[in-house]
Amino acid sequence: ASSPDEEWPEAEKAEKLARGAALKWASGVFYRPEKLEGLGHYRRRETQRNSSIQSRLKSTVQSYLEGVSAGLEQLRSAAQEVQSVCQDLGAARWALLDSADHFQGLQQMRELMEEHVQLASVVQVLPQIFSVHEVFSHILQLLHGQHLLEAHVELMVVEQLRDDILSQLHRRGLSSAQATVLSYFSGLQELNESLAKQLWDIVGSSLRLVREDPILFVTAVRIIEREEKIDDTLLLEATFLPPGRPKGWRQKFFQVLQDTITGGRFHAPHMDAEGPGLAKHLAALQRDIVSELCVVKDLMVQCVPAHYNILSVCTATYHQALTSHLQEILREDLDKQGLFLLLEWALRVYHSPEMMAHPDLLPEVDVSALDPLMSSELVDQTERRYVMKVKASVFEWMQRTLEVEFKEWFREEEPETDHQGFFQSALPAIVMQMLNENIQVASLITNSLQQKIYNMALEELEAFLGRLREALVQCGKEHQQDRAVPKYYISYLLAVLNNNLTLSNSVSSLHPDTACREVPASLQAALDRMQKKATQLLLEELLLDLQPLCLQLPSRKWLSGSQLVGSMCEVIDKYAKDFSRVRKPLFTLLLAESELLVASQYLRALLQRKMVCKSREERGQLCHRLLQDATQLRELFCGLGLDRSQQSLEAVFALRELICLKDPALLSLEVLGFITKYPDVSDEHISTLLDIRGDVSKEVRHVVLEMMAQHPQVLPEGYRPIFSTILVPVPELPFCLRKGKCA
């Protein structure tokens, strides 16, 4: 046997620790000699404490042993009871085995009892089953008399009877019996169909009935809600679903109501989709929709359950039907009036107080949460179609205006004048009014449409100016063939210039944004080309009258003091009087161009028909004539209102200084100043001038031309060329025959 210390090593360890702690304490307490006197007292106290601890330990151990003894006694008693129960269970098992045959008899009795209960229930419903066909007839009579609630009650009773029988047969798995029952109750389907037909007829006439006979409509809604509750109950049970269930009459109610709303007016036969026909159709839609939504809001809402949201449903139905209907109309080839009506109706009228924002509909009716009646893509596509139609119309009107204008040019009377006496025609007013009206009309729809029409208007105006310019060229060609046709050719050219200025000043007013009045560069270029062509034709007329006089320059007769320049001044003055019939900026332009033409023709005649001075006296005579002519012409143009700074006749004065120079050796410096002032002068021009002097040696000529080569000139910006348009004749070379002398 093992020792207690080996069995309880913890106890040994605890004892050692306790002894060590006691020794440590004792050594500390009795270290001093005076403390040894209390040793006896301490020994007695510790002896009492040990006795107390031992007594408590004994008591605890005794209590524990008593509990263990009681537990063992209970375990012995439980073991005896379990053994007794096992014996009883064994006996019961043998007893059950002996009674198995008796239980089979009880099962048969239970089945007989169930059959008896079923037969009893069948016996109870036999009177109802036998009276089914009689009930069918009565229900049919009630339906014919529109006693719908009573008919529906009896119909539900018969359906419940049928469903109970079918449910029992379903649980027993008697499918063949189910077919027999369904055949027996086959009249139920016909009655349901008859009742449903009357209900849908009522729903189809709901907008009229809620005003005339709301009771009938409310009856239909009550029946539909009864059937909906039966459907919900059967679907929740999910054990047996009778034939014809779920009926879904509430869903059918909304479908019939939506078909009623959309069928009558949105699926109508083909209508006149243009002009007045479309306007009447849209007006009828507007009137009917507002009226019917008011009926729904004020009357129908009170006849149906709140969860139907009948007003929202009807509003959405009208909205969707209109969306599809407008798309259907847009598939047709509408004219510009039809497209405008459709855009105006969909984008403005539909949301206005005249329709969906009508005071009688607010605030319950709100279409802002629905999709747009026309999508942004469809609006853009329709706007482009409208712009194309308007463009074709504008082109046609402008072409007619151009044809009328062209015919007026050949009239036997002068063009019209304004209150200031300036020539004009109705063309600018017609064109601008036409374009402005289309832009303003487009502003009633959307800003994007207005911008599209504005861009189209500028494009058409630019194209029109091109065609007008071509017509002007054609008129000029006919006038070249016979200067008597048109009779008032110059007057109408002046009217064209005034019209062009009016158009140029009016174009900026077309812009939708008053803060942005800039004319596009391409259109401004077309206006400038038109003005340039009319000015060119006028100058050609002036040139035709001046050429016979210029052909006499220079000549000995002219040099001796003829009235040639005086005749030129008379021609110029005559044209200046005609030019006074145009507005001031154009008058100044024509004067400046005429003066440039006169100066260039005068210089051309002087340079192309070389007149060589044979003596100093002739040079002096030539200089005197040049001075008189240039002064006379300059004073004429100054008197007409053209400032000297704008005149090109100064070139004649400068050229005269070259000819009047007495010392040819100074010509290089004089020519340098001349070419600096007139950089478009060429070597040929200077060489011709030196020839006219008649006293320039080859050496001086060489020095002058060398100086020009060393000082090439660049045309400054804004410089008006005068010499570059004058071609001087090529010097004639000596012509020699073979074996002969040169001429």
UniProtKB/TrEMBL annotation:
It is found in: Cytoplasmic vesicle, Secretory vesicle. One of its GO terms (molecular function) is SNARE binding. The lineage of its organism: Eukaryota, Metazoa, Chordata, Craniata, Vertebrata. Interacts with EXOC2, EXOC4 and EXOC5; may be part of the exocyst. One of its GO terms (biological process) is exocytosis. This is Exocyst complex component 3-like protein. The keyword Acetylation does not apply. One of its GO terms (cellular component) is exocyst. The keyword Chloroplast does not apply. Gene3D superfamilies: 1.10.357.50, Exocyst complex component Sec6, C-terminal domain (1.10.357.70). Belongs to the SEC6 family. Pfam families: Sec6. Keywords: Cytoplasmic vesicle, Exocytosis. As part of the exocyst, may play a role in regulated exocytosis of insulin granules. InterPro entries: EXOC3/Sec6 (IPR010326), EXOC3/Sec6_C (IPR042532).
